[in-house]
Design brief:
Elements lengths: L1 E5 L6 H12 L4 E7 L4 E6 L4 H11 L1 E6 L2 E6 L3 E2 L7 E3 L10 E3 L2 H10 L4 E5 L5 E3 L4 E3 L5 E9 L7 E8 L5 E8 L5 H11 L5
Parallel strand pairs: 9-14
Antiparallel strand pairs: 1-3, 1-6, 2-3, 4-5, 7-8, 9-10, 10-11, 12-13, 13-14
Length: 202
């Protein structure tokens, strides 16, 4: 069973990752994908009560907004909706009266993001910075804008994960940064991911 949640306003990448981790730890949840820019969370599970999933997301996910020159957290109200979520592509041969989906692959995600204008490639340097191949500059990950986050689990081992970020650096280059996510994360990528998670709330 698949449940898509619309989470408009959920613009905090750190708490989005925390929610994804919480959902993946629930017995019966097979996979979870999320998109901040699209405002959705896609959950593939074994016939769990959607309201249970909504409750978890509601209690953990928030948005960040400015109020009187002060950064404040705003609540998010997740809504169950059939979104034809961008994490999934329609199957060419659905059963009668039904629409079936397959989860988006890493290749699918990269192709989709390239089509959306994220054409440069970013990579982690030995000093924990993000280097942009488009402008040949390196920057502190804490000051990079993250527009979209997609995470993937390995087919046979849930700990074998990859993360793809659609980002924009200060020079205006838009591109993708991908890395192993989990126990196998290289040290330079781990440093970048930690800095991205601690971005200043501005």
């Amino acid at each position: 069973m698949k449940t898509d949640l619309r989470v408009d306003g959920a613009n905090c990448s750190l708490c989005m990752n925390d929610v994804v981790d919480q959902l993946r730890q629930i017995d019966g949840v097979r996979s979870v994908n999320s998109s901040i820019s699209r405002g959705c969370v896609a959950i593939d599970h074994d016939d769990l009560d959607p309201e249970t999933l909504v409750s978890i997301v509601r209690s953990s996910l928030h948005g960040v907004a400015m109020s009187s020159n002060e950064t404040v957290m705003s609540s998010i109200e997740p809504v169950v909706a059939f979104l034809h979520c961008t994490h999934r592509a329609e199957d060419d041969s659905p059963t009668a009266g039904q629409t079936q989906h397959r989860l988006e692959t890493l290749t699918d995600a990269l192709s989709r993001l390239r089509a959306d204008g994220y054409r440069s490639d970013f990579f982690a340097t030995d000093h924990g910075e993000l280097a942009c191949r488009g402008c040949d500059r390196s920057t502190d990950p804490a000051y990079v804008q993250v527009d979209h986050t997609v995470r993937f689990e390995g087919d046979t081992n849930p700990d074998d994960q990859d993360i793809v970020l659609a980002i924009e650096c200060g020079c205006g280059c838009k591109g993708v940064y991908s890395a192993a996510y989990g126990p196998s994360t290289p040290p330079e990528d781990a440093a970048v991911l930690r800095r991205l998670a601690r971005k200043p709330l501005t």
